[in-house]
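Long-time lurker, first post. I've been practising inverse folding by hand and with some scripts of my own, and I keep getting stuck on stretches where the structure tokens seem ambiguous. Below is the full token string for one chain I'm working on. Before anyone asks, I'm not after the true native sequence, just a reasonable design that respects the backbone. If someone could post their per-position residues I'd love to compare against what I wrote down in my notebook.
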């Protein structure tokens, strides 16, 4: 049985202290030797103070907070300096975190509890079969119809732009993935491609045929606070990042139209 001392769990966060203060200790119980890296995008809800309290109980410290807004690490003596340019957003947070990981493997999950705490371990085991592991939702039935349609259409569009060796993945837009650090670092996109929130898609576009991919499934949990990252701005960035074919252009227009119609209906109905 692994003690996970070669694994760093990356959690991008923004004002999610209420989720993290119980989620982080649970991760340490499940993966006692792992490191956890919070890639924080400027929280003002006490996330830093929460991390300091957890650090007081960890010896040696295995929790690191990357305060991207202030360009500081906690604890600072264990981290590399920040690069000069910091791009805000979920995708850039994950890229910055991967770039400073020192363990052989990493796993990325969200802080909102939709990704179960057991998922990093499942992806870690799959790394025995590949260099990059993608986690996909096992069941979409609980999702609202419009959200389900957008998700499936987004995956269709993504598959039209991915190299053949990566197109077999069921959810190339997943927010949960794991990889061998040295291999994935080479595929991190430059800063001007770190917009939006579908960073796995940008990484997959830059992989070569020698990169072995694997996948695992999970049951999505109930969101514990916060809101979905899916919005018009992020969809626009995703749309622009596609190497669109004619049929994809039509479908892309339909997706954006559906999103706009859904937003208009929420305003009209007062939701």
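-- Answer (accepted) --
I ran through it position by position. Result:
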């Amino acid at each position: 049985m692994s003690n996970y001392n070669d694994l760093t769990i990356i959690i991008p966060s923004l004002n999610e202290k209420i989720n993290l203060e119980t989620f982080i200790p649970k991760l340490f119980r499940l993966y006692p030797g792992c490191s956890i890296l919070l890639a924080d995008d400027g929280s003002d809800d006490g996330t830093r103070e929460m991390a300091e309290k957890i650090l007081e109980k960890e010896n040696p410290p295995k929790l690191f907070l990357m305060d991207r807004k202030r360009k500081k690490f906690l604890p600072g003596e264990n981290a590399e300096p920040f690069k000069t340019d910091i791009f805000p957003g979920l995708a850039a947070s994950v890229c910055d975190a991967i770039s400073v990981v020192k363990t052989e493997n990493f796993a990325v999950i969200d802080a909102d509890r939709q990704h179960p705490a057991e998922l990093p371990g499942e992806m870690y085991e799959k790394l025995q079969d590949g260099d990059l592991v993608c986690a996909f939702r096992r069941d979409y039935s609980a999702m609202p119809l419009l959200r389900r349609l957008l998700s499936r259409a987004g995956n269709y569009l993504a598959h039209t732009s991915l190299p053949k060796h990566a197109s077999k993945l069921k959810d190339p837009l997943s927010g949960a993935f794991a990889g061998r650090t040295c291999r994935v670092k080479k595929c991190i996109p430059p800063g001007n491609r770190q917009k939006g929130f579908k960073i796995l898609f940008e990484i997959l576009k830059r992989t070569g045929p020698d990169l072995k991919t694997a996948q695992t499934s999970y049951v999505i949990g109930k969101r514990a606070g916060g809101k979905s990252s899916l919005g018009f701005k992020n969809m626009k960035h995703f749309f622009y990042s596609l190497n669109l074919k004619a049929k994809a252009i039509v479908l892309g227009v339909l997706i954006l139209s559906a999103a706009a119609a859904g937003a208009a209906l929420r305003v009209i109905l007062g939701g």
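A couple of notes from the structure itself: Residues 246-268 form the longest helix (23 residues). The CA atoms of residues 189 and 202 lie 7 Å apart. Happy to go over any region you disagree with.
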